[in-house]
Amino acid sequence: MNIKTELLLCIYLAFSVHVFAQNQQRPNIIFMMADDHAYQAISAYSDHLIQTPNIDRLAKEGMLFTNACVSNSICAPSRATILTGKHTHIHGKVDNIFPFDTTNVTFPQILQAAGYQTAMFGKLHFGNNPKGIDEFMILPGQGYYYSPGFITNKGDTTIEGYVTDIITDLAIDWLDERRDPEKPFLLMYLHKAPHREWFPAERHYREYIHKTFPEPPTLFDDYQGRGAAARQAEMNLLMHMNWAGDSKIYPEVMDSLGIPETLDWGVRALEETLTRMTEAQRQAWNEVYGPMNADFLKRYPEMSDKDLMRWRYQRYMQDYLATIAAVDENVGRLLDYLDENGLTENTIIVYTSDQGFYLGEHGWFDKRFIYDESFKTPLLVRWPGVVQPGTRSTQMVQNLDFAQTLLEAAGLTPPADMQGESLLPLLKGQADKWDREAVYYHYYEYPAIHMVKRHYGIVTEDYKLAHFYYDIDEWELYDRKKDPQELKNVYHDPAYAEVVKKLRRQLAELRVKYKDSEQLDRKYIELYNK
Ligand code: SGN
Ligand code: CA
What we know:
Layout: H1 3-22, E1 28-34, H2 53-60, E2 63-65, E3 68-69, H3 75-84, H4 88-91, H5 107-113, E4 117-123, E5 135-139, E6 149-152, E7 155-158, H6 163-178, E8 185-190, H7 202-208, H8 228-232, H9 237-240, H10 251-257, H11 266-276, H12 279-299, H13 305-340, E9 347-353, H14 372-375, E10 379-382, E11 391-393, E12 397-398, H15 402-409, H16 424-427, E13 438-443, E14 455-460, E15 463-468, E16 474-479, H17 497-513, H18 518-529
Helix pairs in contact: 6-13, 7-13
Bound molecules: 2-deoxy-6-O-sulfo-2-(sulfoamino)-alpha-D-glucopyranose and calcium ion.
């Protein structure tokens, strides 16, 4: 920590220390996050794709948010926003590329300084180690599904096994062996799954490879109702997925069919993970993916583009959802541990993702856009005695709000420069004390993989207005009530002229409120292009 940050933390704690001194039983906090976990793939939201009985327990015993969203739909920026309570243009981690600026103050640092025992297991993806964490084991970068390596306080290590099981073992071991019963704790439990490329555990791929999933109505979207940004994005299942890495087609099958790999690392991605498996794991894999390949080899010559799109969608869902089956099982293990050890009552559990994800809607995978499937994120909160079981909130809450919420829950006053709102009134069932009408969004990483153009925008319950401002200058407006699938940009429709005027004014006000500006837009473009 540099001297300035340290000083700020001390001053801040001197002011807030009396609050927690009064608070005898400060709650433990378990922050659970999966990477790229779409709300469409949690049965508490919708059970058309998968059953997630363990994650659903959190909805049954707590609150489910139907309108939770992120402020920048990509991994590391979202994580930095969660930790700092600030928009990405303020904490500076606007994309996945530059390392996180560790002079930012994060909520775990504040909890640690206030006497919490802190630990983090799983994926952080910051390019540097977490601050304010007593013990951590994090995956380097994106990490691996099989035999993953870990960076720890005491050096690097590799653990044989399946990543989702291992992260849970680490969390449970820590609770069991090193938790200090004299202190409240913060446990950051951060899954790699279901991030691309989707490599499930044997017990799940054996089952899921035989499943067929319903297709989203917009699988064959032609993007005609929208702007250039949607048409030029490179995240279409048919055109932009890798054959080896994503669909798990063997390179020799591709060769014999004359299919080139979509992106040059696709084959490497498959081979790298297969090489990390033990001999027995590889054998099991080939027993299941071998016949799938043989079947594809036979059918491919007869398949139209439409057939291929359908095939790729099924292949995608089989692996993506199978990795979620392991997340759900492991969340169940952790919840059981809390039950068996008397920790359920005094522990707040948050379950969320670093953003949403496209599961074939608009023909897409990946995220990044302000459009709903990537903009919205799952959010479930269980807090016995405070949150009424089985409740739902439809309010527009944002990952920007988590830091303040958790600090207040711990009896602390959040630093004044955090930009979110505490969710405590909503959690306590006092929605009348919540008055947010709109949220602000800003995505930066471009030009880059998936080619989603830079844009910022405002989202209200009724409308979504976005400005794509780099290498094009286009505005899009969606009527969320009439057009929930966001298929028709009505920005130029005269019937919406008044709405456009009002929203543009509100958006300008939000940019001022959150201290974003054209000058900053330009600064981040210049930094990126350096
Ligand atoms: C990798 C993925 C992309 C993904 C980014 C960011 N490709 O580059 O599909 O958008 O990560 O993901 S992969 O073939 O290497 O998996 S994020 O979750 O870290 O933001
Ligand atoms: Ca992610």
